Amino acid sequence: MSVTLVAVLAIGVGVYGLVYGVFAVRSGEEERLADGIFHFALGLGALIAGGGAFRLRPWAWAAFMTWAVIGLTHQILRHFFLGDPDYADMAINTFAVLALSPLEVQIAFGLRHTENVQLARPTRNPLDRH
Question: What is the pLDDT of residues 48-79, one digit of tens each?
């Protein structure tokens, strides 16, 4: 379930980035041109990562995590230097990092091995002496 959520999130974020980028470029404002191109490129990367996430490719996890970190860094820099952060974009990037971080998601993408990992809860508490 978590892996499907990550893939759907990647597709949604990709579409958001593409649409935002197109509107920013088409606005004709010179100061929004670089921001629009940046969002368009990140959106395209997120769409590619979303396609790979549906196929559980390890590179898709790495690409989407990299995309989220770059997006968060971009918004933090906008906050400090421009005073104009996009809080929706920041929230989506934060959610992406949190969705990609659980051990189960990393195992599904083949980034971690299942040896010595207990994925299910124990049926009884080992400390109980009943």
Answer: 988 998 898 999 999 888 888 988 998 899 88
Domain borders along the chain are 2-108
In the chain, pLDDT over 70 holds for what percent of residues? Answer: 88
48 exposure class (CB count in 10 Å sphere: 0-12, 13-18, 19+): middle
Task: For residue 59, give the H/E element and its range.
Answer: helix 58-77
Q: Tell me if 26 sits within 8 A of 35, measured CB to CB.
A: no
Task: Judge contact between 109 and 56, C-beta under 8 A.
Answer: yes
Q: What is the residue whose two structure tokens read 């989407």?
A: 64
Contacts of 81 (CB under 8 A, 6+ apart): none
Tokens 């820099």 correspond to what residue?
A: 77
| R_g (Cα) of the chain, nearest Å | 18
Which tokens hold the place of 15?
Answer: 């579409």
- The contacts of residue 47 (CB under 8 Å, 6+ apart) are 10, 11, 14, 15, 18
